[in-house]
Amino acid sequence: MKKTIFIALFVTVLTGLFAGCSSTSSGNSDKTSKQIPELTGDWKQANSKSSDTYQAATINNDTIEIYWVSDNGDTKSLYWAGSFTAPTTADEPYTWDSENAHSKTENAMLASSDDTKTMTYQDGVLSYEVSALGTTTKVKLEKQK
Q1: pTM, full prediction
Q2: Which tens digit of pLDDT belongs to each residue from 63-87?
Q3: Are 105 and 124 spatial neighbours (Cβ–Cβ below 8 Å)?
Q4: Which of 61, 39, 53, 48 has its CA nearest to residue 143?
Q5: Is residue 35 part of a domain?
Q6: CA torsion through residues 5, 7, 8, 13, sign
């Protein structure tokens, strides 16, 4: 009899513990739910091999402009001017095809002549591929505060 009462008590305690863990767990998921990322603002290349030469971008409303930056920021050359489509969900990765604003890039010597460029946002990093002189690299930008 004592054994049966002990087992019943033990099962009750375990059930209470698991139920408590379950409600605590769902409480934590509410706190960690992802928000739709805000991509508007200034971005700087995080994977440049040089501290004074890098790419930088500005996203404003429905446009993105990307520049080659050198001389510690004293020199800027347009690389990309195109469309920006803001995310509507928190799903990642978020990808959009930016359409080149050829009217801005056609006379820029270092600008891409591509009609579109695929941009990807994931884990706080905005990335895209850059090709020059037969070499392609993935540029990774981080948002500046």
Answers
A1: 0.77
A2: 999 999 999 899 999 999 999 999 9
A3: no
A4: 39
A5: no
A6: positive
